[in-house]
Specification:
GO terms for molecular function: DNA binding; zinc ion binding. The chain is α+β, with helices and mostly antiparallel strands and 585 residues long. It is 43% helix and 12% strand.
Length: 585
Amino acid sequence: MPFACAAFGCNNRRSIQSRSRGITFHKFPSEVELRRRWEVAMRRKDFVVTEFSRLCSEHFKPDDFDRTGQIIRLREAVVPSIFNFPSHLQKPVLARKTKTSCKAEESLPMDICQNLPETPQSNDDHSYALFNSPNKVKARLQEALARVESLEREKLNAKVRERRAKKTVKSLLLDLKKMTLINDELKEKLEFYSDLQIDLFSKQGHEYTKDQREFALTLHLHGPKAYNYLRDSLHLPLPHPHTLQRWMQSVDAKPGLNMMMLNMLQKRREEDQVKYGFVTLMLDAMAIKKHVQYNVHTQKMTGYVDMGDGMDETDVATEVLVFMVVGLQGHWKAPVGYYLVKSLSPDTQKVLVVHALEELHARGIRVVCMTMDGHASNISMCNLLGCQLKQNPRNPLKTFFEHPVTAEKVFVMMDACHMLKLARNMLQAYSPITSTTGIISWSFIVGLNNIQKKDGLHVANKVSNKHIHFDGQKMKVSLAAQTLSHSVAVALRTLRDVGYSQFKNCEATVEFIETIDRLFDIMNSRNPRAKGMKAPLGPQDRGQKNQMHEVIPVWMMFLLALASLRYLSVIGFLVNVDTLVGMIS
């Protein structure tokens, strides 16, 4: 609310005009004694101080102010002393009389005014006129100095605001890259917005521009740590995450293929064919909780089965089937569609896959490979598409199908992480397994854990109780990877060599663990500079991979004959080996 000065006869109010004149307004002190002294100095009868009472700076001496900071403050224990009281409120000041002055008055009976020339008219009303009183001249000088000081501060603040306004997204990206909060790819994405001025974000009463929205959404999606650092640590005026969520609600995200995302990928592909022209199509079904609720944005009930065809269903969805594309020659991924389903047959799933392949092809994006879990319905869908993933993989496998538009090969792969968990589960459930080299048994891994607990020393591996009793953590890939790892195989051999009798016949188990570990390393390769089995696949490795393709399936098919109930835990590795060799050919 606009404050008015409480002093007698003062008409100053808080406004733009008073601020331009350098006038500030100050609260009455909370200390009782000092506030009483202020009230006495004001000489206003029946005046009561409230929380809105203010005195302007014109009632204080210049020395009463502390101007060292950006905010002008009163010094401690100062009392207002400059007021324009009427004559009846002013104390009479009597001149002191001496004997000399009395004699002078008696000796001057004549009227000297008669002999004086006429006094010229005063020009005190001009701003440039000098006052007759030295006190008034001093007051005018101090007022001018205060005004100059105020202008200097405003100039300094304006320079600071100008420097802040010139701080663009480009300079921020360099800082974030040095702090490793963003990677090179995200930095490259955000450089499109490098000319945006950070200080222009979210001025009160102004809408965010399209570029500002896109920058905030991109940074928050791909670099949430960097976004939180800029907003919380540097206090940059970026939108709150709740605001970003509200913006995302306006995006058409209904079940089915997301045409907006597909069109965006088409634009990216036109800009960079190598990076965005070749992809892997991933699909996965995830369980969701049965729940129906009203969507305020679409003004419809959501939670029912929805295949994106606009048909109303009465069954409540229990799963969501998600489609995502991942760049083969670029570190990027994008969800392109989803479907709310209750139970999906392989035939229906095939139709959805074909539709996705056709839409991607229409935008110039070639799907080289399709990745999924090793679920029985996925195996059946692949067979319907044209693959030959038979129950008896001793016969040659066909791990690709023809593209519905171009007839080019589209290879299929099973999720390596899912295959690793299935292999671990097979070893635990069907142990012991008899092979040509001996007994493959889960008991050796259990014995390794018992010895490590008893002796209190881990033999260079991470096996613990949670790796043995994993029923409550079956989905954790790390537990399966640490169980069927090279370090566990080395530990078993070491215990056998140092004379532990219970590990005397562990060689077959060691070979099984090493085989699974090598397969997983090959299928989980990510680092282009890695060596050995973790090295990326290429034409230069064709000879080595062909040898791997000949040896490993023999081992895996023998296991399949011994554990036919766990067909899926073995067929996935065979499919992936065949696909890898076919793709690098």
